[in-house]
Amino acid sequence: MTDAEDPTETKLTRTKERWAREGRFLTGRTARPETERLPPGQHLVRDWPVLDLGLHPDIDPARWRLTVTGLVDHPVTWDWTTFRAQPQSFFTSDIHCVTSWSRYDNRWDGVATRDLLALVEPKEEVRFVVLHSYDGYTTNLPLEDFAAENALLAHGWEGRPLSLEHGGPVRLVVPHLYFWKSAKWIQRIDFRAADAPGFWEVRGYHNHGDPWQEQRYSED
Ligand SMILES: Nc1nc2c(c(=O)[nH]1)N[C@H]1C(S)=C(S)[C@@H](COP(=O)(O)O)O[C@H]1N2
Ligand SMILES: [Mo]
């Protein structure tokens, strides 16, 4: 597929790649989450913007599957009923998007990543997790970030089913990293020994993405 044919190579994608090259929104400041709730260079919003590649995959619940692959002792493929039968968690957390908006106190329902980890049991050598989504999006993060105590596979927001535009039926939420790491419409979770940078990580975004360290873009 050439760039011209690739539906993900949109004007917005190119604009965001340019922002990464220019260091847009960088303040050069760092902070600690314990002392500053709002990370450097962020501003608060009350609504919830929609940001993605522009493809909203509408998956029939009867055909929806979530698969765990890679270096685990117990790989699983969940259909909707099995996913909903997993232990449920309820977490409230803030969103920090690299495009500089933050939104406080989002109430999520879903399956804690720690409960998923307890079930599938990643092997000793696992260091990274790569999320694959129904729209073709990918993102990578270290196992310890995926395993954060308030990270979850969310199917609900503010007591309602997570809407399609925000990643329903199920998205990842990892609140302590920039929101591009929180893959919407997740289809597969791959446990790996080696890292594999995802969609934005190969387009100039930082590999880790800690908002308090202002890890917006890669240094090279
Ligand atoms: N599958 C998928 N997940 C994705 C994206 C995407 O394009 N596809 N965009 C990421 C980016 S860049 C952001 S900022 C957030 C936006 O989530 P929201 O639309 O719910 O605010 O989703 C992230 N997860
Ligand atoms: Mo984003």
Describe this structure in words.
This is Sulfite oxidase-like oxidoreductase. Residues 56-200 form the Oxidoreductase molybdopterin-binding domain. It is a single chain. With 220 residues, the protein is an alpha+beta fold. The chain has one domain: Oxidoreductase, molybdopterin-binding domain (Sulfite Oxidase, Chain A, domain 2). The protein is built from four helices and eleven strands, in the order αβββαββαββαββββ. The protein has helices at residues 11-22, 80-84, 113-120, 143-146, and strands at residues 43-44, 65-70, 77-79, 89-96, 101-112, 128-133, 138-142, 152-157, 160-161, 171-173, 186-192. The strands form two sheets. Strands 1, 4, 5, 8, 9 and 10 form a six-stranded mixed β-sheet that branches. It has a five-stranded mixed β-sheet with strand order 3-2-11-6-7. β2 (65-70) and β3 form a beta hairpin. The protein is globular, with a radius of gyration of 17 Å. Bound molecules: ligand MTE and molybdenum atom (MO). Ligand MTE is lined by residues 48-53, 97, 133, 135, 137, 166-167, 179-180, 182-185.
Shape: globular
Total number of helical segments? 4
What about the largest sheet?
6 strands, mixed
Derived from helix and strand composition plus strand pairing, the structural class reads: alpha+beta
Helical percentage? 10-25%
CATH class: Alpha Beta
Rg estimate, integer Å: 17 Å
Instruction: Give the N-terminus to C-terminus distance in angstroms.
Output: 27 Å
Give me the CATH superfamily. Oxidoreductase, molybdopterin-binding domain
SSE succession:
HEEEHEEHEEHEEEE
CATH architecture: Alpha-Beta Complex
| Hetero compounds | ligand MTE, molybdenum atom
Please provide the count of β strands.
11
Mean pLDDT: 95
Q: Name the poorly predicted regions.
A: none
Strand content: 25-35%
State the CATH topology: Sulfite Oxidase, Chain A, domain 2
Number of domains: 1
